[in-house]
């Protein structure tokens, strides 16, 4: 679950963000505590805290004194925006690089994407 | 769980008492085994006395076993309990005083047991068998207190000897210990040679024999104090 | 940040051999440190000196601002159970725990009992008859249940199987989260503990070669894999700490974080970037330190 490539606290933050995006962690719901995250991911609580603090700074979580961390209203929208603008860099670039390696051009890619996308919708697809 | 479970103390005296508790945590070592040894020796002696068809006084030398045991306890106090005390964050000073206090308590226990045994022994005329383990005329010459003191002194000496030799071994190695023991042996030889030179055997040993149990015990205790002092000095820089 | 331990110019000599070589560092309060290094690097020696079980040849050690030697104010606030700890003859685990309760003011018996159950420690067997793993468990339990303000764990997992090790790590994190304290964990299983430790102290041949946060260290290096020509072009001018090759494919580990731009360039050139695990990084850096040492210099002086 935890990979070596990126800083731990970023991965922790991302796991919380993923939960917000897919809806399992609703807005105004209580987010897992630092200690819970540390226990679950088996990491140092200070690292978990760093991830949580980053989310607070970003405006994704906010602190209710004495109670804990909660998902900020509008967090999901904020995260979706962020992910969409990063999508090209994170996913499209590597896709193009790999395609180039194996000799697929832009048209081939378009055809592939259309083909796969329609297969998804017929079998249920993903919610948006 | 129990009415009083001792916990950590912040005062120096409290911590030294806790070192005693630490030593006694396994009561086998300082209480039960010595008593078991004593009891076993007693039983064996009784059996042997019963078997021997001799009416005169029979002496049991079995109490020796206790001496060897105390020597072993002294040695292990250093080789095993000292490193453990370090892990318990006990200072060397606390360990030193606590361990000697423990040895004194055990020595006192043995003194009491052997003195009571001696009283019973003399009252029953050697357990009705003329068998003598605890009582000798010489050690009882100054009464039960003298006997108790002599046992106490001997027990302390044996424990200290073990503790002391083990410390020398740990700090100065096998060579160090050998040198020290050879040195002590040499000193004794020199003393004996001097006595021989002046043909003073009778004078010296006569004088020693005439010394009562009490003065001799005090001399032994003085030796224990000297050894303990050097022990303290060596312990200061000892690593577990 | 407050430091609870301050070490300056610490040196330990055994005759001609220098076991600890002019070492200096500060330990901050309530942080989990990894004291990492090869066997014989000096980890246990350093920990022994910090707890006054061993003595420095020269240098200064302050714990809570005071020298720890024979210091009954400071020593009970620390706990150091060493890797092959000796226990009194005939002692059983409950004896050891009862003694720990006498000397550690924060001792928690409930935690001790829970850990005994977790590790399935036999309470009726003499400690000298316990297996290596069970012996380690005794030490680990004392270390955790002591709740000492500074707790040292000296290769605590020797003999513990993977399940027991995970139990230790889990309980450590759990208890540290609830009762924050300074923890120094020495280990040569670096990857296993890399997620637990906040700061890394690497000691090699008696010298500290790294003293940083885990995040900083992770960023320190990357491994580039691919066609020899392309890789060499990229790594030109960078500090290389390891190189391996198989045919035309070469794997080079370089020091220095990669920017996003550089990552894009690498991807575009068809080169792979493989993350360097903490263990690999430290192993490589240790090897490098060993190689760069002039043959006649080094430990003997």
From TrEMBL, chain A:
InterPro entries: Tscrpt_reg_HTH_GntR (IPR000524), WH-like_DNA-bd_sf (IPR036388), WH_DNA-bd_sf (IPR036390). Pfam families: GntR. Gene3D superfamilies: Winged helix-like DNA-binding domain superfamily/Winged helix DNA-binding domain (1.10.10.10). Keywords: DNA-binding, Transcription, Transcription regulation. Residues 6-74 form the HTH gntR-type domain. It comes from the Bacteria. The keyword Cytoplasm does not apply. SMART domains: HTH_GNTR. This is GntR family transcriptional regulator.
């Amino acid at each position: 679950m935890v990979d070596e490539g990126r800083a731990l606290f970023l991965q922790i933050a991302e796991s919380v963000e993923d939960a917000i995006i897919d809806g399992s962690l609703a807005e105004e719901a209580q987010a897992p505590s630092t200690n819970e995250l540390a226990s679950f991911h088996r990491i140092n609580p200070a690292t978990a805290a760093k991830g949580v603090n980053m989310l607070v700074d970003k405006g994704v979580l906010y602190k209710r004194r004495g109670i804990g961390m909660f998902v900020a209203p509008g967090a999901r929208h904020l995260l979706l925006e962020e992910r969409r603008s990063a999508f090209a860099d994170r996913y499209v670039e590597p896709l193009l690089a790999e395609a180039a390696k194996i000799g697929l051009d832009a048209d081939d890619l378009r055809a592939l994407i259309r083909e796969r996308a329609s297969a998804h919708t017929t079998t249920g697809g993903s919610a948006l | 769980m129990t009415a009083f479970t001792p916990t950590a103390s912040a005062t120096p005296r409290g911590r030294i008492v806790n070192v005693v508790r630490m030593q006694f945590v396994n009561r086998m070592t300082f209480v039960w085994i010595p008593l078991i040894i004593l009891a076993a020796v007693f039983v064996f002696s009784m059996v042997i006395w019963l078997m021997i068809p001799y009416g005169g006084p029979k002496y049991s030398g079995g109490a020796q076993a206790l001496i060897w045991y105390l020597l072993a306890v002294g040695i292990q106090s250093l080789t095993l309990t000292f490193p453990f005390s370090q892990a318990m964050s006990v200072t060397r000073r606390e360990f030193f005083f606590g361990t000697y206090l423990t040895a004194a308590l055990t020595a006192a226990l043995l003194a009491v047991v052997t003195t009571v045994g001696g009283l019973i022994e003399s009252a029953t005329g050697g357990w009705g068998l003329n068998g003598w383990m605890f009582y000798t005329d010489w050690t009882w010459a100054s009464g039960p207190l003298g006997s108790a003191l002599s046992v106490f002194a001997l027990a302390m000496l044996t424990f200290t000897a073990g503790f002391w030799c083990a410390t020398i071994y740990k700090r100065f190695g096998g060579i160090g210990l050998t040198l020290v023991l050879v040195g002590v042996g040499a000193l004794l030889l020199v003393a004996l040679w001097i006595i021989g030179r002046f043909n003073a055997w009778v004078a010296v040993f006569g004088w020693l024999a005439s010394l009562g149990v009490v003065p001799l015990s005090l001399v032994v205790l003085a030796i224990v104090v000297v050894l303990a002092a050097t022990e303290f000095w060596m312990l200061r820089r000892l690593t577990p | 940040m407050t430091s609870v331990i301050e070490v300056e110019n610490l040196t330990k000599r055994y005759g001609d051999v220098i076991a600890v070589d002019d070492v200096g560092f500060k330990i901050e309060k309530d942080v989990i440190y990894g004291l990492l290094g090869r066997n014989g690097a000096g980890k246990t020696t350093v920990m022994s000196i910090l707890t006054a079980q061993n003595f420095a040849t020269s240098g200064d050690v302050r714990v809570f601002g005071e020298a720890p030697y024979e210091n009954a104010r400071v020593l009970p606030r620390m706990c150091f159970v060493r890797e092959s700890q000796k226990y009194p003859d005939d002692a059983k685990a409950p004896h050891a725990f009862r003694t720990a309760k006498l000397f550690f003011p924060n001792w928690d018996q409930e935690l001790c009992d829970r850990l005994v159950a977790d590790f399935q420690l036999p309470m009726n067997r003499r400690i000298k008859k316990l297996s290596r793993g069970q012996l380690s468990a005794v030490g680990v339990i004392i270390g955790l249940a002591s709740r000492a303000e500074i707790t040292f764990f000296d290769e605590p997992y020797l003999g513990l199987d993977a399940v027991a090790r995970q139990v230790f790590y889990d309980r450590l994190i759990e208890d540290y989260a609830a009762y924050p304290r300074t923890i120094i964990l020495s280990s040569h299983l670096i990857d296993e503990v890399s997620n637990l430790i906040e700061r890394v102290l690497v000691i090699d041949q008696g010298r500290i070669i790294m003293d940083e946060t885990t995040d900083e260290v992770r960023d320190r290096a990357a491994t580039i894999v691919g066609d020899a020509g392309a890789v060499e072009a990229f790594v030109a001018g960078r500090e290389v700490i390891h190189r391996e090759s198989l045919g035309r494919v070469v794997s080079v580990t370089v020091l220095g974080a990669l920017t996003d731009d550089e990552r894009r360039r690498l991807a575009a050139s068809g080169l792979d970037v493989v993350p360097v695990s903490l263990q690999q990084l430290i192993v490589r850096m240790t090897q490098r330190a060993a190689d760069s040492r002039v043959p006649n210099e080094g430990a003997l002086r």
